[in-house]
Amino acid sequence: MKQYDLVVIGSGIGGTSAAYQCREKGWQVAVIDKHPVGGTCALRGCDPKKILVGAAEIIDRIHRMEGRGVTEGSSLDWSDLIAFKRTFTDPVPDSRTHAFKEAGIDVFRGVASFISENEVKVNEVLLESRHFLISSGAKPRPLDIEGSSHILHSDDFLELASLPETIAFIGGGFISMEFAHIAAQAGSQVHVIVRSSNILKQFDQDLVSLLIKRSEEIGIKFHFDTKLQSVSKQEDGFVVSGTQNDENFRLACDLVFHGAGRVPDLEDLDPDKGNIQTEKRGVTVNEYLQSVSNPIVYAAGDAAASAGLPLTPIAAMESYAVAANLLEGNHQKPDYELMPSTVFTLPSLALVGLTETKAMELGIEIEVNRMDTSEWYTYKRINEPYAMVKTIINKENGHLIGAHVLGSNADVLINHFAVIMHFKLPFDEIKKMNFAYPTTASDLPHLL
Ligand SMILES: Cc1cc2nc3c(=O)[nH]c(=O)nc-3n(C[C@H](O)[C@H](O)[C@H](O)COP(=O)(O)OP(=O)(O)OC[C@H]3O[C@@H](n4cnc5c(N)ncnc54)[C@H](O)[C@@H]3O)c2cc1C
User: Fold this and answer.
1) Does the pTM of the predicted model rise above 0.90?
2) What is the 155 CA–ligand 1 centroid distance (Å)?
3) CB 171 less than 6 A from any atom of ligand 1
4) d(CA 232, CA 229)
5) What percent of the chain is modeled with pLDDT above 70?
C-alpha cells in the first residue's frame, strides 16, 4: 500500500496543473493514466488535429487562389502528414512522464479504480490518499447502432495510415465537421450523417448555414434527419443503413467514424465503490469542484459535471481551481462566463458569449448586427467566399454580450471580441485606437 496526499486520475490538462501545484507545496502526489501520459489534447485532440487542419488550410487556399497568381498542383500526402503529426505527439508521453518524475510526482500506467472512499487500485498496487482528483476525461458516446464495433473514433482518424476514397462521419458536432473538412481537402468523398436537421447546435445558425453551403461546395454531402440502425461489413468497406425522413437510407463507404459526441470516461473508475456520485455529464460536484458525496474527491475537465464546456481551457482553469481549493480550503470557483470556442473548419466558425436565441430566451433586450464581411478586403484578397460577423449588444447598457464569426481568421477575431467583453471595453475607445494595418485587428473598429 502506497500513501499519498493527492492521487490524480488522468494525465491530461485537467489533472496536470493540480498535480504540479500540490507537489510544489510539498504534497506527495501520484498521477495515473491508462493511456500514454499526456491526455487527449496533446495526443489525440486539439494539437494533432490542428496540424492536419494546418495542411488542409494550405490546400483550400491554393484552390481558392487558382487563377489569381497561384497555380494548382499541390495535394495532401496523408502518410507524410501523419508522420509530421507524430513528430509532435510521439515525444509527449516520455517528456511528460520525465517532467512529472523530475518534480517528484509518481506516475502509474494502468486503469485506476476505486476500492473504497480513500483507496484506488492500479495494476494490483493499492494507493491510499488524503485526496483524489478525477480528471479522467471523456470518450466517444456509445452508439445504439447494430455493428457499432465497426465504427472508428477520432483517435483512429488521427492515426489513419492512408485516407480512403469514401468516409462517413456520424454526427454533426465539431469533431465530425473538422475531420470532414480535413478529409475533403485531402481528396476523400465525405458524408456527414446527422439525426436532426441541423449541425453545430450551440453556434449561430445563420453562420452555420453558410458553413454548410461552403462544405457542400468542397464536396461534403450532408444527410440530415437520418437515423442510423446498422453498420455492416462488406467485402470492401461498410454499408451504413437506417431511415431518412421515414424512407430507407443506405450508404456504402470505406470507413465510418464516430463524431456523435463524447461522454465522461468514468466506468473504469468504479465510482460507486468510492462513494462518488455521478451523473450524465460527469462527477457531481459543487461550485468548488468537490464531489457532493465524497468530500476528499474533486473533479476537473471533461469528467466533471461542472458548468464548463468540455474544452481544454476549461479543463486547465478547473485544474487550477482544484489545486487552490485543495491547498487553501474551498474558496475558488471557476469563472465560466466567457469561453470563446472555435470549430476549425475551412473557414472556421467561432463564438463567444450568448447566441441571439439564448439572449432572447433570457429575456435580454438585444440589438443584433449581422455583417456580411465577404466583400471586405480581408477576405477578398484571399478569395474567401463566405465571411460573416454577428454581434449581440445588450440594449440596456450597450455592452457586447455575444459575438459570432465565420471566416479564416475567426479564431483570432473571436479572442479580440472576448477581450472586449471581458473588460467591457467601450466601443468609442476601441474605434479611436490604432491597429497595425491590414490585419484582423484593423477590422475590429468597423465591426463594433
Ligand atoms: C478530436 C478532438 C479534438 C479536440 N479539439 C479541441 C480544440 O480544438 N480545442 C479545445 O479546447 N478542446 C478540444 N478538444 C477537447 C479537449 O481535448 C478536452 O476538453 C481536454 O483534453 C480535456 O482534458 P481532461 O484533462 O479533462 O481529459 P483528457 O485529456 O482526456 O485526460 C484524461 C485522461 O484520463 C485517463 N483515464 C481515464 N480513465 C482512467 C482510469 N480509470 N484510470 C487511469 N486513467 C484514466 C485517460 O487515459 C486520459 O489520458 C478536442 C477533443 C477531441 C477528442
Assistant:
1) yes
2) 11
3) no
4) 10
5) 100
